[in-house]
Specification:
By secondary structure, this protein is mainly α. Helix content is 84%, strand content 0%. The longest helix has 27 residues.
């Protein structure tokens, strides 16, 4: 399996999640204070879990440990970046 293609495809999927989360933040969470921020941080976690599950299923990676590890590490990187960015906002 070509993991470079897989990695590029998953990076695109994560970029879409970031765009969607940014829109949701602006529409529903931006002016909500700390309580809304905490809910948004949980949403970030959930959205990245969903994109990993969908991507793994779509690409039949359930038994490909190297592919799964690659995807999970990329998702963690994106999620951490998101969490770092938004957790500074209060």
């Amino acid at each position: 399996m070509d993991y470079t293609v897989l990695e590029n495809d998953f990076n695109c999927a994560c970029d879409e999640v970031i765009v969607n989360l940014t829109e949701q933040y602006k529409l529903n969470y931006q002016s909500g204070g700390p309580g809304k921020l905490e809910a948004f941080l949980e949403l970030i976690r959930q959205e990245f879990e969903k994109v990993v599950a969908a991507f793994v299923s779509k690409n039949d990676l359930e038994k490909d440990l190297q592919g799964m590890s690659l995807i999970q590490n990329i998702a963690k990187k994106y999620a951490k970046s998101c969490l770092d960015k938004y957790s500074k906002i209060v």
